[in-house]
Amino acid sequence: MASHLPFLSSFPKTLPPPPPPPLPLPPRKPQTRRRSPSSVAASSAAAAPLPDDDAGAGPAAPTRGDRFLGRQLATEAAARVLAPEDADRRRRRKEKRRAMARRPSGLASCYGCGAPLQTAEEAAPGYVHPDTYDLKKRHHQLRTVLCGRCKLLSHGHMVTAVGGHGGYPGGKQFVSAQQLREQLAYLRHEKALIVKLVDVVDFNGSFLARVRDFAGANPIILVVTKVDLLPRDTDLNCIGDWVVDSVVKKKLNVLSVHLTSSKSLVGITGVISEIQQEKKGRDVYILGSANVGKSAFISALLRTMAYKDPVAAAAQKYKPIQSAVPGTTLGPIQIEAFLGGGKLYDTPGVHLHHRQAAVIHADDLPSLAPQSRLKGRCFPANDTDVELSGNSLFWAGLVRIDVVKALPRTRLTFYGPKKLNINMVPTTEADQFYKTEVGVTLTPPTGKERAEGWAGLQGIRELKIKYEERDRPACDIAISGLGWICVEPSGVPSSSPDNNIEEEYNGGELHLTVHVPKPVEVFVRSPLPVGKAASQWYRYQELTEEEEELRPKWHY
């Protein structure tokens, strides 16, 4: 067999052992998201075994859940810190949207008072006969329409329309004083030039101390109106310095101060020059308290500008209505007055609850408006020997002054409407005198019917007035919405020249008690330098160059 199968000789005699079975494969790891090298390094460091002496000393790496929780806590903490600021920011944005919603729309309104035109209620402001309305609308002439109320006002009728806090008792009331104030809320968000008007006869009562609530950060030009009503021989240089000093004390930043008269056109040219220089394409808004003379000022403005500006000349035909009724203007009135762009707006007067006009009947309002130049009425008069101590003085039915302590030569000088009577009686008889004479000789209130509904003089203010010099007034007592009373410690000329004046001035105080209706305000201020003698006792303040540069300049 070996000879026939020679290849068998190459095989081994015994078979080798079988190979070992293959090792099992390790289980496949689930796929994970690729991590950054830094996180891998951190994980490796955390997984590495620590020596026995340092076991548990190193911080553990935060897990994904820890990191998520940390982000949530940081977000909540930031929200708690920023929440008040965000809420305040949202509130301001909401107020701005509300204010801008009251901006004058394109609706047709009466050019005399600014009330929207309507044909539904005949007694309400803005009423126009339907036939007239349709005709004017067809010819696109609604901006040339005068409402029925303005026609009555132009003929001397006393037609009120404002009620509410600061409005007027009696008469018809269609809009509240608060609604008129809300119409001006959008001004603080506009880029405009504000011309603020103040009545020189009622300077403190008509000043609008919080005018920035309406004007915002817009520049303000202060215009003092009705200077033609000041007593004769008044030095306007003294008046201008007094006004600027008062404005600085009230901390109101204004561009300049102008003394004007809408009747005699004093100072109007200076205001026009200032407006043209400062408006810079912006709209101009005339702002002020009720019955301060805004409509009359606009008429004087247009009349003066008409000589050189054809746009102002055309605007004279449709100028706002002037009336002695406070609250004549009931909405912003747009006037095309400038040739170089920008519009002029007459705005509703801001009705202040602390003025006399807010407490008397609407029919008595004309008695509060002076119609001619003021003339001081002195008590006691120079030709009498009556002393003020122990007496009470009644200024119509609106003011009562009890003189508790005064010098023998103390004098009170009243500046206000000539129609209002002044009566002096002993203080012991003052209560009974007021009860019997209010509505009869003490008017307003006029008539027994109004006197019965009259609340009386409930507001009482006790004044202790200090004086330093006998040759100048000690102060003014200003009654909001009426006028002022000049207090002169030694105003009455002495009948005995040898009298020891120094003995009269021991104590240095005058004691007065002022009674007014609630909520009429009483202001004590530095004396307004009126009359010929004022230029002798008025003193200009000594200022440094820096203070002089910061003070606003005045013009007339």
UniProtKB/TrEMBL annotation:
Low complexity bias locations: 1-13, 37-63
CDD domains registered for this protein in UniProt: YqeH
Biased composition (Pro residues): 14-29
Region (Disordered): 1-65, 83-103
Domain CP-type G: 177-353
Listed GO MF terms: GTP binding; GTPase activity
InterPro entries on file: G_CP_dom, GTP-bd, NOA1, NOA1/YqeH-like_C, P-loop_NTPase
Composition bias, Basic residues: 90-101
Pfam families: MMR_HSR1, YqeH-like_C
Protein name (database record): CP-type G domain-containing protein
Organism of derivation: Paspalum notatum var. saurae
